[in-house]
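Obj.: predict assembly geometry.
Materials: sequence records (below).
Method: joint structure prediction, all chains together.
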Amino acid sequence: MSPIDQVLELLRGQGAFHEPFEQIAGGDCVVSLEPSRLLPAIRRMLEAYPELHLSAMTARHDASGLVVLYHLWLGWGLSLRVVVPNETVELPSLLDDMPAADWYEREAYELYGIRFSGRQELSPLLTSQSLGGRPPMGPNRGGGG
Amino acid sequence: MSQITLPIGPQHPLLKEPMALRLGVEGERVVSAEVEIGYVHRGIERLMQERTYLQNMVVVERICGICSHAHATAYCQAVEALLGVAVPARAAAIRVLFCELERIHSHLLWLGVLAEAIGFTTIFMYAWREREHALDAMESISGGRIAHGANLIGGVRADLTPDLAIALGSALRTIEERLGLFDDLVERDRSFHRRTQGIGLMTLDLVRAQGVVGPMARASGASYDVRVDAPYAAYSWLRPPVPITEEGDVWARAWVRVREIRHSLAICRQLIVSLPEGPLAERVPHRVPAGEAVIRIEAPRGELLYYIQSDNSDSPARVKVRTPTLPTLMALKQVLPGLQTGDIATVVAGADLCMACADR
Amino acid sequence: MLDRVVRWARKRSPWLLHYNSGGCNGCDIELLDLLTPRYDAEQLGILKEASPRHADLLICTGPVTLKSREPLLRIYAQMPEPKWVVALGSCACSGSVFRDCYHVMGGIDRLLPVARYIPGCPCRPEATAAALKDLLESL
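Observations (raw structure tokens):
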């Protein structure tokens, strides 16, 4: 089984993902997950791949609301896509399992207003309080999408 | 013993760029550390989403003055991936030439800054003197010492002509001759050892947990180097050796970077000899089709990631930039506690932080 | 050119403080280059001083980010009179490519009185040296 197939099997075991994986420009595979499946999937992947590396988290707009992409590296690139349909939905924080997620979660909250549950308060990482606490890349603020 | 809070920055002689540390100190020992960034946050991702793909060529080089070409290369590769365009072999090689000259200048810059922080002003002067040759080389080819404008979407703008190749070879030889001084510093200088060995320990576990990349990670035994693990541009046929060691202290970070300078010089020499023939750039379509791209490259400080989403318009819908200093800063919060206050400068300087990159 | 500056500098040695209020670091490293062997600005009597309380010249690089506003004002307030502010590099002069960013106020003169504007992106060491010489002669 190819490395991609092994990971997909593992992710399937955690609950269905939305569509067959797609391969995007640059070579990363993208797999979509429900927010509730994210943490179990990450934990299962960490068991199978202890050297799993979180390169980055991208928050962005989407027709379906907000999207967070978790860009992972395990000898090849895998991005997990999680849709956040509206501001009331919180994503599970990965802080306990992947401490590297800390500042990326703070930045996603600060710039896009995405909230993460199960962790200490998300204090601003980059911006001045004079911005008034409104996410500068959130809805209607020129954040694209 | 009572604890006092030692605020450092954003303006402080110990820091080259603005950031703030709040250290809890008991006697001579750091017991806690908070890091505050954002003083150099401009809002570049949103800016790039409000500019065209072409205008962004100017913006992207100015995210960071030290690793400007790394940003330009990652950005171009992401756009080219969306366009489905492969740059010609000669362009891929010239991009790598600049990547390696930039690695040389960045590491020498860092070596000088570390040396200055621990009182070796002479080494600072020597390192920055040799660094000028790398800057001269980049300027002679592209016209720029710092912001080079070497890249185009589809290739490169400037060529390594035979005359320039001769001058470049001479510059590389000069730097290499003087590298012995820095080898001696790392291998044989007892006072350098006293100030850097066993100081600022970062375990491999901490590297993995915080996602630390680049020389910081390789000095603690991690092997990840994007040039080798996910080759791009001319790295598909160039095979840089990757120096790795396990001590995880400031000394190890110096050991790794001095070796990387030597390997970068060798890669540059190899490129002069084996530069592929052919055009400098590929024609590219005017419109970037809708899609997403993720690109990783090895900047001087480690893995640099660009994510671009295109919506088939003149401007990218989303540009995400993750720079290698960010995980180093996260790890620093755990490396600083336990240090003697006298070693704070060494560890902070030894971390090769780039706040312009981290804050964007 | 250098001889004239050396003679002038013997009459007064300006102590120089540098603050980066949001720049990419390009101008910073070119400024630091002035102290290194090829340019050797110390012969001009220019000393880099760490504390605002002893500085005559505040050399600012970078645009002013919203977060840098307070620190920059504090540094300027701590400098004793007489004092002069130099905007080094295009970002410090006007905000340059970052002028429209949500976290950027603009150039240094949005906040402080600027005695000299030195454009460049980045400003190369020779240009900085020439501009500083010019400023020192006019003081």
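Conclusions so far: The two ends of chain C are 18 Å apart (CA to CA).
To do: check interface contacts against the pulldown list.
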